[in-house]
């Protein structure tokens, strides 16, 4: 779980560095919109996440993402975790 | 930036295609094409009044939309003439909503006039800067209005309100046609400068809102009326994903463009 959470946090931070403070404090129950990310930023974060987790998320699942835990769940279901993925950047 | 003859010619042809269909297949008027005699006030409620009034309000900023739309496109015949024709078609939308509100008794003429006055107290200003951004905004916004009116059509059908069904059907069809034209022009922009146009798509979506949403009195309260707008999920599903797909823009493209932009900064 922690690896997925870290990956999600890194992707969100990369898409919206201006929201880093709220991303640092987020929990799985936090809503993405409360972090300050709009729909297009969420898509950008999803792209980083897909790259890092070597995954491809279905559009209809992505449309349903409301909370951080929804993204974590997507990674768990569709991804292959490589914890180094974001550290290399 | 000067627009090439080639591009102007392409825009002219795009407009002619749009206009031919509009003239031959899509023209309607509020007297003959809406079955006003079937109007049954019992089929309406205050929720309908709020929704219709809100849509009417958005359409009421037409003078401001026209002023910006025509000026920004005046050097390109196809796009400027589209703006003129678009304005004519949009002008019927506010008109038919007003007629429906008053004829159905949902609002008295005086109530309507007060509403109109309150809406027009503010002047709408575009958030987009370039013609390309304006066109991109149009592609998303027209699709959104199509879906909103399509939703109202479904509601009216459920309520067996044939008059409102017809109103929504006619308007939704116009909005879909507008979306189609804008999509074609955005495609030209992408062909010319893929990365630049993609960057504009991201920036337009980043600040996207319905026109008038920040100036119409009580807009957010109005939007809370059931089915007045689309949910965030519906916006993703029906507006963002299909539009990006049409343009051949992927999430990966967006991430790549934004990363490059961040590096430049
Ligand atoms: Fe309209
Ligand atoms: Fe329209």
TrEMBL record, chain B:
EC number: 1.14.19.2
Stated name of the protein: Acyl-[acyl-carrier-protein] desaturase
UniProt GO MF annotations: metal ion binding; stearoyl-[ACP] desaturase activity
GO-annotated biological processes: fatty acid biosynthetic process
Lineage of origin: Bacteria, Pseudomonadati, Pseudomonadota, Alphaproteobacteria, Sphingomonadales
Description of how the protein assembles with itself and partners: Homodimer.
Classification via Pfam families: FA_desaturase_2
Names of required cofactors: Fe(2+)
Domain of life: Bacteria
GO CC terms of this entry: cytosol
Family: Belongs to the fatty acid desaturase type 2 family.
InterPro entries: Fatty_acid_desaturase-2 (IPR005067), Ferritin-like_SF (IPR009078), RNR-like (IPR012348)
Source organism per UniProt: Sphingobium subterraneum
This protein's UniProt keywords: Fatty acid biosynthesis, Fatty acid metabolism, Iron, Lipid biosynthesis, Lipid metabolism, Metal-binding, Oxidoreductase
């Amino acid at each position: 779980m922690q690896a997925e959470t870290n990956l999600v946090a890194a992707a969100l931070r990369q898409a919206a560095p201006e929201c880093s403070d709220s991303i640092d404090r987020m929990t799985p129950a936090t809503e993405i919109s409360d972090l300050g990310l709009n729909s297009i930023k969420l898509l950008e974060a999803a792209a980083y996440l897909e790259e890092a987790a070597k995954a491809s998320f279905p559009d209809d699942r992505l449309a349903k993402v409301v909370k951080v835990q929804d993204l974590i769940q997507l990674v768990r279901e569709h991804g292959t975790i490589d914890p180094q993925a974001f550290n290399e950047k | 930036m000067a627009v090439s003859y080639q591009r102007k010619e392409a825009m002219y042809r795009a407009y002619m295609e749009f206009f031919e269909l509009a003239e031959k297949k899509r023209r309607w008027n509020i007297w003959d094409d809406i079955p006003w005699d079937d109007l049954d006030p019992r089929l309406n409620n205050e929720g309908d009044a709020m929704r219709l009034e809100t849509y009417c309000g958005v359409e009421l900023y037409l003078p401001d939309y026209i002023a910006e739309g025509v000026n920004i496109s005046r050097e390109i015949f196809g796009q400027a003439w589209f703006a003129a024709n678009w304005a004519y078609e949009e002008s019927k939308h506010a008109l038919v909503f007003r007629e429906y509100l008053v004829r159905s008794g949902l609002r008295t003429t005086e109530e309507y006039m007060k509403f109109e006055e309150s809406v027009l107290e503010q002047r709408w200003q575009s958030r987009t800067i370039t013609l390309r951004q304006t066109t991109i905004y149009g592609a998303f916004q027209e699709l959104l209005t199509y879906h909103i009116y399509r939703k109202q059509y479904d509601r009216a059908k459920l309520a067996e309100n044939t008059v409102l069904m017809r109103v929504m059907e006619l308007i939704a069809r116009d909005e879909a046609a507008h979306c189609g034209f804008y999509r074609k022009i955005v495609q030209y922009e992408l062909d010319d400068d893929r990365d630049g146009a993609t960057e504009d798509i991201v920036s337009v979506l980043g600040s996207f809102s319905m026109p008038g949403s920040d100036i119409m009195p009580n807009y957010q309260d109005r939007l809370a009326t059931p089915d007045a707008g689309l949910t965030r999920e519906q916006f993703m599903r029906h507006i963002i994903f299909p539009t990006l797909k049409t343009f051949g823009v992927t999430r990966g493209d967006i991430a790549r463009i934004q990363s490059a932009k961040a590096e430049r900064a």
